[in-house]
Write a structure and sequence with these properties.
Radius of gyration: 46 Å
Distance between the termini: 52 Å
Largest sheet: 7 strands, mixed
Structural class: alpha+beta
Strand content: 15-25%
Number of helices: 20
Shape: rod-shaped
Oligomer: single chain
Helix content: 55-70%
Length: about 675
């Protein structure tokens, strides 16, 4: 069949695209080399002007990020904060910053950075924000374009919180620039700890208005979500008895404290007068949340059972982490360089530990091919990314930049005011959701399994009870049949022989004795026949339940002259199973037998009513009643309760001396109705 023009063109187009895609895949290594070369050439460009122009379109927000291209840096080896000396002697020693502003690592001397601001908007009031709540000491100096001093502020975590020029989680500095004017900004940073920061410039109204509301909303969501998760997880642990989840509960609890402290909220609200805790508390909480996470991972996967050597390695690692936390808490008693050495060693070992753990999980995943291991691998990778970014921040390096997404997702650009990497917070939320899901899933599976086992046990118990009752009923039938076909026949034959002797006898004395013997024999015959009837109703065996109950009520009235027994039915008894009919008959027989033996009643009423798929069996008499606490545990009532339980029904008894007795039994029709057959 020939191919027409459009179809042929389509196949040719698809084939050429496949070839083009294959060529790209084969030569992608050259593309990567080209991108690397372009990046290298970009670094070889001439140093740009150190100028940040404050301008925006009508619909843009009043927010700017100070780029590395607009920043110059100088390391003052005198480690002082003498701005006059720097401006006089080192004006030409500033060099362009070689990163995206501002990764410094661990510097031993004072770091000076400078940049220019040029205002091209109507607003004049701005705020410069330094995103790093752990800077020990800093000085910010503002000069005009000619070098005249405009403003000087000194602050940092070595000062109490109220020493700041503006309130905020991060360090905020007021800046005033008239439209069309330029201004120099100099910032001196004391490197007591590894140093990394971002510098943002805001219009004051934007920072204290929209941005502050956004941060308040996000932090409120964070606290509410963590609190709700902790409450739900605690309830799940208590109900499900999955006690290993307490480790993850502690992990979430510590992390929910660590992130706000790492954002600077602790220094603002909890220890504003104790600067020493600003670095110690977040760093210690960071290590504790790592320890809790490792403990949860170990107990969840059952590492002691799977790998003893790896478990020993984890024990040693936890000991190293705890010793590191202790050293951080007392680091001020050691030389100034000590904390840098401790942090570098700790985070280096943490990276090594994370890689070993990742390798172990991949090994177990490939060996067992478990779906749980695959999801656990995702959780660990997310956790490692968060640890990696946080570790780099503590070492003075930042890795995540949202500038390339600013035009697509402006919301992410606003998250630059959070010192905690958004990937850490997002990963933390993802971890909580996945762990809670798997814990709930495991609990639901265990619950379903327990319910299935309970159902099997209940079914087995019910089958055993039915088998026991059926065995008793078969034995009743056998005894009734033997009495009816054996003893009753023999008694009838003996009575006939005595009657024949009376006809042949002419002695009055012997005739009197034979008459008495015949009367006793008749009474014995009736008693044996009644016993046979009670053991198994012929009406129930040969007809149906309704006729058997009517025959039973008539028999009760005959057994006690003056007793009136009324039977009322408003249900269909035909669809009831044979075994259920036997249970119902025996229940009503036992209840009427108790009336006959104990109630001394003049009337009794039996009702069988079907109401909303429930068969209600009631008996009410006007007898003398009894005290429930004294007589509610008799053999007869126990027999009734056991048969009601076999029918999955409920038993209710009311009685009091002189007020008669009322019994109500509710049986679901689904438990006694014969299954529907489809042809």
């Amino acid at each position: 069949m020939p191919i027409n023009g459009p179809v042929k063109a389509f196949f040719e187009f698809a084939f050429l695209n496949l070839l083009y895609f294959a060529w790209i895949m084969v030569h992608c290594r050259y593309l990567l080399l080209l991108l690397i070369l372009l990046g290298f050439l970009r670094n070889l460009q001439a140093a740009p002007d150190t100028l940040l122009v404050l301008q925006r379109q009508q619909n843009e927000i009043g927010y700017w990020r100070v780029q590395g291209s607009a920043v110059e840096v100088f390391e003052d080896k005198s480690s002082g904060f003498d701005f006059t000396s720097v401006l006089r002697d080192h004006r030409n020693d500033f060099r362009p910053l070689n990163n995206a502003c501002c990764n410094f690592g661990y510097e031993r001397h004072t770091v000076w950075i400078r940049f220019q601001l040029e205002n091209k908007v109507q607003q004049q009031d701005f705020l410069l924000e330094l995103v790093n709540p752990f800077i020990t000491k800093m000085m910010m100096v503002q000069t005009d374009s000619t070098g005249n001093l405009l403003r000087e502020d000194i602050t940092g975590t070595s000062f109490p919180y109220w020493h700041r020029p503006e309130n905020g989680r991060n360090f905020l500095f007021p800046v005033q620039i008239q439209k069309g004017k330029r201004q120099w900004v100099y910032i001196a940073l004391a490197p007591d700890y590894p140093l990394y920061l971002r510098i943002l410039c805001w219009e004051r109204e934007e920072r204290l208005g929209n941005q502050q509301r956004l941060e308040d909303i996000l932090l409120t969501i964070f606290f509410v979500f963590c609190s709700l998760y902790l409450f739900l997880s605690a309830m799940l642990i208590i109900v499900a008895r999955q006690y290993y989840l307490w480790w993850y509960f502690g992990y979430v609890l510590v992390t929910s404290f660590f992130i706000p402290c790492h954002l600077g909220l602790g220094f603002r609200y909890i220890w504003p007068g104790h600067p020493y805790w600003q670095f110690v508390v977040p760093a210690t909480l960071n290590i504790l949340h790592i320890v809790f996470g490792i403990q949860f991972f170990r107990t969840y996967v059952n590492i002691p059972k799977l790998s003893k050597r790896f478990n020993d390695f984890i024990n040693a690692s936890i000991l190293i982490f705890l010793v590191t936390a202790l050293l951080i808490m007392v680091h001020q008693i050691f030389p100034r360089q000590f904390i840098g050495w401790v942090l570098t060693s700790f985070f280096g070992y943490l990276v090594l530990f994370s890689l070993i753990m990742l390798g172990w999980i991949v090994y177990r995943m490939l060996k067992s091919r478990s779906r749980m291991m695959r999801w656990l691998l995702i959780i660990v990778v997310v956790h490692m990314i968060g640890l990696f970014t946080t570790s780099l921040q503590y070492l003075g390096y930042g890795v995540f930049n949202f500038l390339w997404m600013a035009h697509l997702l402006p919301f992410l650009e606003r998250l630059s005011a959070f010192f905690v990497a958004p990937v850490l917070m997002g990963g933390f939320f993802a971890e909580m959701i996945m762990v809670f899901y798997f814990a709930s899933y495991r609990y639901i599976r265990l619950t379903d399994k327990n319910q299935a086992v309970q159902s099997m046990l209940a079914k087995a118990k019910e089958d055993n009870l039915n088998a026991l009752i059926m065995g008793a009923e078969n034995e009743r039938q056998r005894i009734a049949r033997d009495l009816h076909d054996g003893a009753c026949v023999n008694l009838a034959a003996v009575r006939m022989q005595i009657g024949a002797l009376r006809d042949k006898n002419s002695d009055p004395a012997l005739d009197k004795q034979l008459s008495i013997l015949s009367r006793d024999l008749d009474q014995t015959y009736r008693e044996v026949r009644d016993i046979s009837h009670n053991l198994m109703s012929k009406a129930l065996e040969k007809t149906d339940l309704l006729m058997a109950l009517e025959d039973l009520c008539l028999h009760m009235e005959q057994a006690q002259p003056g007793l009136s027994v009324h039977l009322f039915t408003q249900c269909k008894l035909e669809p009831i199973q044979s075994l259920a009919k036997i249970h119902l008959y025996r229940i009503i027989q036992e209840m009427l037998g108790n009336v006959l033996k104990h109630a001394h009643a003049g009337a009794a009423q039996v009702q069988l009513v079907e109401n909303e798929e429930v068969l209600q069996v009631t008996l009410e008499d006007d007898g003398q009643g009894f005290v429930l606490a004294q007589s509610s545990n008799g053999i007869g009532l126990d027999n009734i309760r056991s048969r009601v339980a076999a029918l999955r029904g409920s038993f209710h008894l009311e009685s009091a001396p002189g007020e008669g007795t009322f019994i109500r039994i509710d049986i679901p029709m689904s438990a006694i109705r014969q299954p529907t057959r489809f042809f």
